[in-house]
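Worked example

This section walks through a single chain of length 185. The input is the sequence exactly as stored; nothing has been trimmed or padded.
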Amino acid sequence: MKGKDAVTLGRELLKHFGGLRGLLSASKKDLEIIKGLGTAKIAQLLAATEIAKRQLKEDIIGKTLINGPEDVIEYLSLSMSNLKKEVFKIIYLNSANVVLAAEDLFEGTVDQTAVFPRDIIKRAFELNASGLIFIHNHPSGDLKPSRSDLSLKEKLNNACRTVDLTPLDHLIIGPAGYISFKDET
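Given that input, the structure is written out below as tokens.
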């Protein structure tokens, strides 16, 4: 933009989106309303964001031993904390707690997601997984589990145990952080 250098525009973007995390979560539509950002710059920002997400995902898949939520929270925070809809993600692990896959299985509305345990279990068998970590986000920012969250946790845990899968944790991610059901109990 004439009269505005890249550093100034960058600072304005960070301020507009509430920091780097907000900027990295911005959609194409969000970026299109910013004066000074053309189609090419928007494409570059979105590409850089996707590269960062994929790099973090690659860091955990196949190499990482998961001992607790801290081991995956950087990846999860970038990929989930500022989503506008609820997304339910599963991390599948082998018997040594090495990540086999991290997948978004269900997407819902702003405040709920339909989750189907049999789809989760089917995918776990396809991957030969033995442990699972369930993660979903709360776009509202309220990290307190709802009654339906608690009910779902029990339903998933029971379904997993029935087929000898180990539910290791269930996390709720939001813009302000996360909670671990394992740490709460």
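What to look for: The chain has two domains: 6-56, 63-184.
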